[in-house]
Amino acid sequence: MTDSWDVRILTASYRREGPQEEPVIELFGRTREGKSVAVEYRGFKPYFHAVRPSQVLVNYFSKDSEVLKVEPLELEVQGRKTPCAKVTLQHPWKTPEYRERARKHGSDVLAADIPFAHRFIFDFDLAACVRVHGAPSTGKYTTDLVVKAERFEPCDPFNPRLKVVSFDIENTIKDPTILCLGLAWREDGGEIRTDILTGHEKDIILGFIEFVKRHDPDVITGYNIDGYDLPIMEQRAQVHGIPVLPLSRDGQGITNIGERFWRTHGRIIADAWWAVKLELHPKQESLDAVARWLLGEGKHDVDRVHMDDEWARNRERVLEYCKKDAELALRVLEKVARLDKAMDLGVVSKLPVDDTFNSRTSTMIDSILIRAADRQGVGVPMTRTGGGGKSIEGGYVHSLEPGLYEWVIALDFSSMYPSIIIEKNICFTTLSDAGTIESPMGVRFMNPQQRVGLLPKILGDLLRQRREVKAKMKAEADPERKEYYRRLQDAVKVLMNAFYGVLASSFYRFTNPEIGASITAFARENIKSVISQLEADGVRVIYSDTDSIFLESPSKDKDGSVAFGRKVAERFSAGNVNMELERVFRSFFSHGKKKRYAAKTAWPVEDELIVRGYEIRRTDAFNLQSESQKRDFDLVLDNDTEGAVRLAKELVAEIHAGRIPQDMVLEDGEPLEPLVISRTVSEDSRYVNPDSMSNVLAARKMRELGYEVVPGMKVSWIVVDAKKAPMHVEPWVSGRPFEFKPDWEYYARRVAQTLAYVTEVYGWDERSLLMGTVQADLFHENFDGEKEEPKKVEVLKTDKKLTLEDFF
DNA sequence: AACTGTGGCTAACTCC
DNA sequence: GGAGTTAGCCACAGTT
């Protein structure tokens, strides 16, 4: 009896079956009706290609019992049709061994590093969702359904509700013996339920395994589980004779992929910390800080250094705390909606959710490109390893003069690199000395009449797809559907950018430095030519970065600027290259350094403060610094330069005196929180001199206090003595009182430094801002700072000379 | 011997 | 992933 199920694929893997250890493909997912399902497919075999195999190699492989078949075929290798052999093996894990044998016999190998489950997905051209035809079956799976698949066909994508289980452990500091394990999940998508496992450590671990088995979640989450809870659980399980943690849907263990990520058949291991970090770039990364910020709710803290005492005296509190952690991690993961995003990326890149959640972007590009290459008989090169040759030249950045400008027009080329790839037909399949398109660096590509490249074709399709989805989004009335389309078009954009990302890297399998460098060279040539054309017409170009151009508007009003901007955009749009008017700024400020500016918009929205590069945007700036700078920008951009200088002096004086302006402290926030500095910390071994680095020192003290600090995580601190070298810092633990005295002089200096970017154009540099306060403090009266005042730099004001008509 | 300024160098972060 | 900015350490030289 055969039947069919529409399945959203969550993970893809294979297992070994029977004495012959035959590989069985497993696709795990959820059906349209919301049932969890394990789909099995038998009979698919691994293979790779050997280029120009010698007869000796063919004979040698043919006699080997591991090798099922050696078939001749022709593949395009470096632009030429080349005789190759398709070598089919019995066992996927044998591929590395056999590709080395082929190499020893003088053959290059192709497509010999594609994970078996991906090979299956590509060959059957499966997408994120698929209609599975087959028969109901049974097996050692925890899923609602097991299906023995016979064939697959496409189906409309859908996003089933995923079952997520969150957990958190508490352990003693030294062993680290697990004391309890908190659990949180939503019952049928409704209310959050929590539970706690405690007692003997072994029972806790077995209890968790049992819970996962019974509950059958699609996703296992928790805060910092990748780097903390899972490694500890695995370690403690081994102590009790449990070699692997069978948290999968087929009874197998969890495995560590490349230091950070974990895999388990049928489930996605989704670290909530990692999701928040990638999606929101929070300043502080502790669960307490993130939960406060995101959910407006912290957690109660327990004394971690004395966990054993706490556990003995205050057990209920620890248990509550542990459950709360699991619950908060679950809510944080839901809030950042990264699983939804991963599903959208899965739809556009035709991959299981696990791959778009936990893999590198090159996996997405592989998914699209390998299928296309296979269809056209183009050999799939191996990913280049090692090397690390010189990197290719990137985008062009125009320098900018310091000052305040009025009426500035921002234009940019939409999807510049993809447009260039399409327009210039750039591809590894068009790279040829016979080509008629020559890049500025002398690399030649065939024109589309000679041959349409794979990359241009794919990117053209994606561009079209994005336009269609955007059109649907605009036409859609239902807000939920509209939001879905918005996310989908965003996913297409992410995928397109990822294409450029991997092409620019010299390691990606399908590209080489010549191709990447040609793309950026065309881009630089293009943007520079636009700049010189505009300048030749008398338009002042203020700034430019890669694909954007900032112009001084010839008309000093909104409508005129918009009209002018539109004309310029139209003038430089042709074919696939599209220039758009992005914004019109009423005022625009920079202290003259690239990638840093602040501006106030007039169009398309009125009065929005846009800041790039400055401390306001930086996670390693303290909030007092960012907020001070923001207020100063606000004044300067409203042309209140006197006010900006006055505010700067006042702020520096206040901080110097050890006071934080009341309105800079968040409501019900800690009074010293505006002074917190956060930075990422790596392993000690990654640093030349770890002992001299604040982040390393803060991390050490955090660990001494019993907190989990994992490489790659941000640590937070307050500077208590900057005169020492290295400066003395004390860790800031969100939700716990801070018992040290900040080095106010240091903070005043940093704020002065930051504000001086703005005020020095008006005669107040960092020193004079600081001096002003020192003098005022000493004499208890105002000091006008005249002696310290450097000569005023002339303020740049855009002068009205030209009108629209001068250019068109 | 204790400051001050400079420049090399490492590291982190942001903009496209 | 390249381009670019900034902070902070540290060694070294020149003052005070």
Walk me through this protein's architecture.
The structure is a single chain. This protein has 808 residues and is an alpha+beta fold. The protein has four domains: 3-154, DNA Polymerase, Chain A, domain 1 (2-Layer Sandwich), CATH 3.30.342.10; 164-336, Ribonuclease H-like superfamily/Ribonuclease H (Nucleotidyltransferase, domain 5, 2-Layer Sandwich); 365-379 and 392-612, Palm domain of DNA polymerase (Alpha-Beta Complex), CATH 3.90.1600.10; 616-676 and 732-778, no CATH class. Helix 18 (623-637) runs antiparallel to helix 19 (641-656) and helix 19 packs antiparallel against helix 21 (744-759). It is globular, with a radius of gyration of 30 Å.
Keywords:
Nucleotidyltransferase, domain 5; globular; 28 strands; single chain; 22 helices; Palm domain of DNA polymerase; 4 domains; alpha+beta; 7-stranded antiparallel sheet; DNA-binding; 808 residues; DNA Polymerase, Chain A, domain 1
Give a concise summary.
The protein is α+β, with helices and mostly antiparallel strands and 808 residues long. It contains 22 helices and 28 strands.
